[in-house]
Amino acid sequence: MTDGPLHGLRVIDAGTRIGAPFCAGLLGEQGAEVIKVERPDGGDFLRELGPFEDGYSLWWAVEGRGRKSVTCDLRSEVGQDLFGRLVANADVLVENFRPGTMEEWGLGPADLPDSLVYVRISGFGQDGPYAQRPALDRMGIAHGGLLHVTGDLDGPPMRPGVTLADYLTGVFAAEAAVAALYDRDAHGTGRGRVVDAPLHASILRIMEWTVAAQDRLGLVRERTGNRVRDAAPMDNYRSADGRWVAIVAGSDANFRRLCDAMGRPDLLDDHRFASTADRGEHADDINAIVADWVGSSTAAEAEELCLAAGVPVALVHSSADIVVDEHVRARGDLVTVDDPVVGPMLQQAPHPRFVGESLPTPSGAPRLGEHNEEVWQGLVGVSDDEYAAARDAGAI
Could you say which DSSP state residue 50 is in? Predict the structure, then answer.
């Protein structure tokens, strides 16, 4: 990226997998220069995860984009020295090693410049009884409470379809990094901050009323499937042509609109559906009526009638639907990224955007160590002899 509000900012991505790299990537999509530091023997683990095109990870192609790649063995003294010199030229460092690891390598916050915004993503945070536990995305959604409330009422807990805790933590961490940069630069303190962003806490923060209801009412929130507590009709309904239609009509106003769309004004006089509370109590009844109506129509017909009546509705889109959707295309929500390995590839566009502006299309995900000479010699100032020695020692 060469433009955007964060142009001139330099971010070091020392993370792996998703959370920390995604944080760095978001800053990059807003204009920051992102330099990814990878282990010499294989690089980021995301490079090894499918699906693959001719052995090339498409996951890496998306989440590795918009940054430069250098290799550096942080477990070696030579690598630690090089990394410290690199970070001295940066504004933000993002990492997701187990707490204490960077300190063991002499690369903790106390070892690096005070001006650095040091973003630390972990499973359970930098302190507390669980800080040293191994943790991936599922530990975050489990410990944060989301896994308990996801799935059908009578079924097991069900993970979301994407690695939500990692991505969400990356978003929260990027926001905190920008806040720390604003404090450092706009307030003239010249001092960075250490951001502590654990996976479980990101999930916990989006758990709506769950904790308050536990505290005040002793209410344990449980799974409700595709419905919500105390409001109906709302569900994903199967159409006659085998598609799914998402309808939300829990409020009185939207319920009246849905009755109009279905041609069922009689439902407004049914005592079971007189109020939001009544419909919540008789959710199975009203959802069954809506399911029968959608099931007698094609998805397009049900959507058209709902939209004409002002009912919140959306067809459940697969990836095949997304890439041809007229709204997604019209807004520019997809871009073609020139990947250095497999060529032009359709991907999600940078998000969010600023009104009246479009952010540059990210560069393709780099090959492992593609920018070693540019960064180590051009930016850090490593001499030819030192570079050769580090390379021969396996430090880069």
Answer: S
Measure the CA–CA gap between 110 and 196, rounded to whole angstroms.
15
Contact partners, residue 224, CB within 8 Å, separation at least 6: 149, 153
- What mean pLDDT comes out for the span 47-51? 96
163-179 per-position pLDDT tens digit: 999 999 999 999 999 99
User: Is the CB of residue 150 less than 8 Å from the CB of residue 159?
Assistant: yes
Q: How many CA atoms lie within 13 A of 157 on its CB side?
A: 13
Cα gap 12→140, rounded to integer Å: 24
87-127 per-position pLDDT tens digit: 999 999 999 999 999 999 999 999 999 999 999 999 999 99
Q: Note if the bond before 109 is cis, omega within 30 degrees.
A: no
Q: E strands within the chain?
A: 10-13, 33-38, 52-53, 56-57, 68-71, 92-95, 117-122, 194-198, 234-238, 244-248, 313-315, 334-339, 343-348
pTM of the model: 0.94
Tokens of 392: 């021969």
Longest dimension (CA), the chain: 86
Neighbouring residues of 181: CB distance < 8 A, sequence distance ≥ 6: 9, 91, 92, 117
Neighbour-count burial for 149-171, b at 16+ CB within 10 Å, e otherwise: bbbeeeeeeebeeebbbbbbbbe
For the chain, give the number of residues: 396
Catalytic status, residue 384? no
| Contact (Cβ atoms closer than 8 angstroms) between residue 156 and residue 233 | no
Both structure tokens of 227: 């419905």
| Residue 1: per-residue pLDDT | 46
Alpha carbon of residue 238 to chain centroid = 29
Q: Residue 70 carries which DSSP code?
A: E
Among 166, 270, 338, 384, the active-site one is 166
